[in-house]
User: Fold these one by one.
Assistant:
Number 1:
Amino acid sequence: MRLAILVSGRGSNLEAVLRAVEAGRLPGIAPVLVISNRPAVRALEIAGLHGVPSLVLPARAFDDLAARDGAIGRALTDAGAELALLAGYDQLLRPSYFAAFSGRTINIHASLLPRHGGKGMIGLAVHAAVLAAGDGETGVTIHDVTADLDAGPILLQRRVAVRVGESADQLAERVLKVEHQALVEVLAHLSASMTDLPRANTRPRR
């Protein structure tokens, strides 16, 4: 399965995937392209270190965001990508993206969707919202990407207990470790079956 990864920052999840590929844990996955909406981010360095081609497609290079998203979709199609992974990508994908790329797109989100999803729920904002709500648990959700933000069918969820007195940074660090594991698990299943995960590993939306 030819995989493209969309990133915006430090590339921790990207690095976890590329390391798993190189370690032979994802024999059915071939990373073909990394796209960032921001220049000079660590994720681009990681792509280079692992020999994966990369592109930077910032909003300012296009007339509008629809044009930028269409360009992303065309880049994935030109690279022969079958699956796109949003790994810390902090932008909404518009209809022009889906018109240009007919492959599958999945996203990893650092909460138990549908809780703490939607506009503005990226990075530390998600973990701060979990703590502010007094939730006893949070986790990781990997889901198909659709035109509705954070609302596509769920492929996998992993739960993480919230510890009393911890900060958003501390919670984020613990959840990130689970993100890495969950991503590798999902990609292994998708590359092996080219379909959804076995039903025993899924959780319905609440």
Note: The CA atoms of residues 70 and 99 lie 7 Å apart.
Number 2:
Amino acid sequence: MRFLALAILAASAHAAVLDRIAVTVGRQVITESDVISDLRVSAFLDHKPISITPVEKRKAADRLVDQLLILQEAAFSRVPLPSREDAVKMIGPIQAQYGDGWDAALARYQITEDGVIGHLLAGLRAMRYTELRFRPEVQLSDHDLRDYYGTLAQEWKQKGETQIPTFESSREQLEKLLTEQRTSEALDRWLGAQRQETRIRYRDEVFQ
């Protein structure tokens, strides 16, 4: 019995080491396993090799902090967000990409289908809140669109493009692209302010 108790304690201690706290965001916690899971699922979705380096772990932690800040604000605002069913609907096309190798790929990346769904759901909810919160603030003038078109046209010319669309023929696409850019910029400014107002602590030992 004493040996069994010691074994349980040892296993518990080992599990605690594996699931160290990576970041504290106010009173919320992001664990090292959360960070690694994000890297594994992201690599799986992108069909890329898994890279769990200190630099990549820090990037993943930053993404999770931003996502947590967004979802906390969304919960406080009580805005309608996507449900788990919405994320489940996204699994079909991803499964089709892997075909019969779906289960083998999950095992290779050391993730589960439920983990993929959770990853997709968190991303969907953050994206929906961003659209609802910041997109309505974007107001584009004709000058904004023409200036943006001029920038893109110059880039196309530098790349050697010969068939450059006219401003009028590309106006709808310009509005979409510039709106997305301005929305992203508004989100970045908001996240910067939230990070300053929130006590966020990264545990250096996790990212070494």
Note: The longest strand covers residues 21-25.
Number 3:
Amino acid sequence: MAEPKVQGYIQSINTSFDNILKVTEDLSEKVIRWNPTEEEWSILQILSHLTEATPYWLTEVERVLEKPGSEWGRGLQHQERLEAVESPDQLNLDEVLANIKGLKEQVTERLSKVSDSQLTEENPHRNFAKFGNKPVSFIIEHFIDEHTVKHLGQIERNLSKLSGTTK
């Protein structure tokens, strides 16, 4: 079992994934693929983004722990990030939902290997000097935990914008 602080992160992240699944499981494919505007992602794109981003950030945590002092992060134009959302018509809904369910296991397995004492190890962001050196906890809190909550909110906002579309 993970140490107390890490266990809290695991529980929080997995609760967010449970909430995402609860909100999306009974939605029609039409609703999940619906874009509120051209500038916004569909729920399917949000889910696909999470299936790409979560493993990416878990790998970043593992990498900076293996190589203390190494740079972490990516920019908005990161190729894999863009590919996860650029062709929503080609995304298979069942596969994306299965991948979301699998993220809980990944989060639990991979973060359980992190000790509470490792959370304070600091590393520089590769793109933004303004971040300075940040502890591993910052990566987990902001780029996995808060990121997942933010996208749950985005899914809920998409649903609130539906008009005349049956869930």
Note: The helical segments are 4-24, 29-33, 43-66, 79-86, 93-111, 136-160.
